[in-house]
Amino acid sequence: MLSTCKQLISLALTALVLAGCASPSSTPIALSAATETRLPEPTFTATIEPSPTPPPSPTATATTPPTSTPPATATPQPPTPTPHPPTATPRPPTATRKPTPVWTPTLKATIPPSPSAGKAIAPGEHPQNGKCASYDIWGTDTHAQINWCIVSVFVKEETGNLEFVSTWTATILAGEQVRKRTDENNTNMYLVDNLGNRYDHIVTNGAAKLGGTVRAGPPVTLDGVFVFLPAQPGAFIFTFYDDDQKVSIPNINLGTPPQ
User: What is the pTM of this model?
Assistant: First the structure.
């Protein structure tokens, strides 16, 4: 662009020189203000060339190391509930006897003499009069009074076994009913003779084996039998113990003549 301007200026100067050198006969050309045409002044236009764009500087790109993917973890499964056996439906509470401490009976040596002492007890029935013991039993809403008696003892001729006939008369004082438990394998009911020997029953029958239920109302009597092995020589008086109820029936005498 600068070179072009210089050329235009040079041409203008040349034209002026040639005009001055023209012959005098030539008619001067009057230039009026109206017709005077001025050559345009050279205009200097600065052209700003775009600056070269610097190449992009390499940008340091942080390379993120690949994230290690943790191994798939097995989702814990909740434990499978173990089926429980069906729960037994509780039965209505029956009369529950109060727990009693262990009671060890002590036999006192106050036994009257008997003509059958030292001899075998005569076979047959030996009735007992007023050989009883009373106790109360309690349940959640139940209260009953029990009168336990030994009414008779049979001595078997064939075996010599002793069969104690027992009765339980229950009077309900509160509640609807009471139930007697079985004594079939109950070692807390036993005999002790006048020599200090203990006898455990070997057979039970009636209410002694099956138990029984007494409902509210008039007193009800249950009866059963306890069978023991033959008496030891010299034994003729017995005490019947019920350690469950902590009671005993003493002086069951088999020394009188059989009826």
Answer: 0.56
